[in-house]
Every structure is written in C-alpha cells, then in structure tokens.
Amino acid sequence: MALLATLREDLRNARAHDPAARGDVENALVYSGLHAIWAHRLAHRMWARPALRGPARILMQAVRAFTGIEIHPGATIGRRFFIDHGMGVVIGETAEIGDDVMLYHGVTLGGRTLQQVKRHPTIGNRVTIGAGAKVLGPLTIGDDSAVGANAVVTRDVPAESIATGIPAVVRQRSAKEREQAVDPTSYIDPAMYI
Ligand SMILES: CC(C)(COP(=O)(O)OP(=O)(O)OC[C@H]1O[C@@H](n2cnc3c(N)ncnc32)[C@H](O)[C@@H]1OP(=O)(O)O)[C@@H](O)C(=O)NCCC(=O)NCCS
C-alpha cells in the first residue's frame, strides 16, 4: 500500500476509534499511538535487512522515549492498528497482529520463555485488548475477541470470545457486547466534547 494512502487510512482509523479526535493535522501531532505505528512501519521494513537491524532497534527505542510505547521492529502488525493513550504498551519481537486491532495503554504482548523462538502472542483481526491486560506466550487470540482490562491471558482464546480476570476466564461474546467493546463512544459521552 502506498505511503500516503497508509497515512490517510491510519488517520481515518484514529478518528473512528476516538470521538475526542478532531482534525487530521492535530491528530497527527498529538496521538502517540499514531507516532508509534508509523515509526514501526518504517522500522519493520528496516528489520528485513540484516544491516539495518541495529538502526531499527535504535529508532524504536527513541520512539519509546517520547511515546511510552515499545514495539519491537520484528513484530508483524496489520492495517488500521490503533493504540489509545499509549503509555506502557510493550509488543514483543515475535508478536503477530491482524487487521483492525485496538490496544489501550498498559497492554503487554509478551513472552514466557527466554528461548529465541516464537514466544509472543498472535492476535486475530478485529480484536480489542483492554487497558493493562497482559497477553503472555505464543498463544492465539481469535478474530473478533476482546480481552478485558487488567486480564492476564496465558492460553488460547477462541474467536468471538471475551477473556477477563487473572488468570483469564473465557466466555462467548454476543454481537451486542462486540459493539460495546470496540466502540469507545459506549463509555465516552460525546456531549462533553461539543
Ligand atoms: C471485558 C469487556 C470487554 C467486557 O465488556 P462487556 O461485555 O460490555 O461486559 P459487561 O460490562 O457487561 O460486564 C460483564 C461482567 O464482566 C465483568 N467485567 C467487565 N470487565 C471486566 C474486566 N476487565 N475484568 C473483570 N471482570 C470484568 C463485569 O463486572 C460484569 O460482571 P457481572 O456479570 O458479575 O456483573 C470490558 O469490560 C473491558 O474490560 N473493556 C476494556 C475497556 C478499556 O480498557 N478501557 C480503557 C479506556 S481508557
């Protein structure tokens, strides 16, 4: 996808995920989630070339310093990825993230082994992961699922499920719940922003 088209899609996506979002120029300046994913898209390309792996790590560490978001350049991330609030997010080297995924602050997609193997989660499409949730190990979160705020997930979560608690307990997700979990307007009053 062309660079400009990707930037536009990311900006549209930011507006779709946050009713507090206003003009694209302002959003491009203030959303640390956008800064982090844009830097990662560049760093991920650099990571594919062994000679540029060092600079890719340095770039992402610099971005971490001012966004509070640490994404390893090796992580694979799909389209329309959005991190709201940002601070404290960690995404490990072998994490794989599908399209239309949303994370809140404090989410860790981490490993549970020190071996150099696939050790981070695989996140399906249209998944929302709540603030402070820890998703640990090479497990899979199925499409259209949600992980509740502060959950600790160490096992696979099937598609269309909700995982909450420590350790996370999984239940099926109804269509109504799906809208509520993905749409921030369900807990932010738009009248406050007029
Ligand atoms: C997990 C989540 C997706 C469930 O949403 P939902 O389907 O609308 O669930 P409900 O609000 O109807 O709650 C259903 C039950 O789960 C409980 N529950 C909800 N979220 C929970 C969580 N994160 N951890 C533990 N239990 C939770 C509720 O207390 C309720 O329990 P009850 O049936 O005993 O009363 C949602 O609560 C959540 O955590 N979203 C993340 C939001 C977030 O991180 N926002 C940050 C904004 S800055």
TrEMBL record:
Q: Which GO terms describe its biological process?
A: cysteine biosynthetic process from serine
**Recorded GO terms, molecular function?**
serine O-acetyltransferase activity
- Domain of life, per lineage: Bacteria
Q: Which GO terms describe its cellular component?
A: cytoplasm
Q: Which reaction does it catalyse?
A: L-serine + acetyl-CoA = O-acetyl-L-serine + CoA
Q: What is its EC number?
A: 2.3.1.30
Q: In which pathway does it act?
A: Amino-acid biosynthesis; L-cysteine biosynthesis; L-cysteine from L-serine: step 1/2
Organism source for this protein? Mycolicibacterium chitae
What the entry lists under Pfam families is as follows:
Hexapep (PF00132)
Gene3D superfamilies per record: Hexapeptide repeat proteins (2.160.10.10), serine acetyltransferase, domain 1 (1.10.3130.10)
Q: Which InterPro entries match?
A: Hexapep (IPR001451), Hexapep_transf_CS (IPR018357), LbH_SAT (IPR045304), Ser_AcTrfase_N_sf (IPR042122), Ser_O-AcTrfase (IPR005881), Serine_acetyltransferase (IPR053376), Trimer_LpxA-like_sf (IPR011004)
Protein name per the record = Serine acetyltransferase
User: What are the UniProt keywords, alphabetically?
Assistant: Acyltransferase, Amino-acid biosynthesis, Cysteine biosynthesis, Repeat, Transferase
In which family does this protein belong, per the annotation?
A: Belongs to the transferase hexapeptide repeat family.
